[in-house]
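Project standup — Tuesday

K.O.: blocked on the structure for the chain from last sprint. Re-posting the sequence here as requested.
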Amino acid sequence: MTVSTDQENCPCLSGEQYGQCCGRFHRGEAEAATAEQLMRSRYCAFALLDTNYLLRTWHPRTAPAELELDPGMQWRRLDILSTSRGGPLDTEGMVEFTAYYRHGSERGVLHETSRFVRENRRWLYVDGDVQA
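H.V.: unblocked you, prediction finished:
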């Protein structure tokens, strides 16, 4: 998936244009105000193969040393199912989501509950529990 302009719809399906949604986070112009915003921007980064953003927003305690994304993985849709805490004044939050993908002729769904922490006014992804 590619986004050629900031005026295109954001891959996170928020209904906003990429430049006003996840693009500003990816470019480092703003920080996500909520755990859900960070979740959406990370999904978008997976869809756009932005490993730098993913590593920058991963908690250092749980982040991999390096990250290699599969360009054959096409992320198609993100559905936020629920959030717990994760607001602008919280220090932790959880986001449950389903993300739909295609890889070659295979179609699949990732269902995860992700944990986030807010440190130094920045939300960071910690880890997640994948549901079968």
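K.O.: great, moving the ticket to review. The chain has one domain: 18-131. The mean pLDDT is 96.
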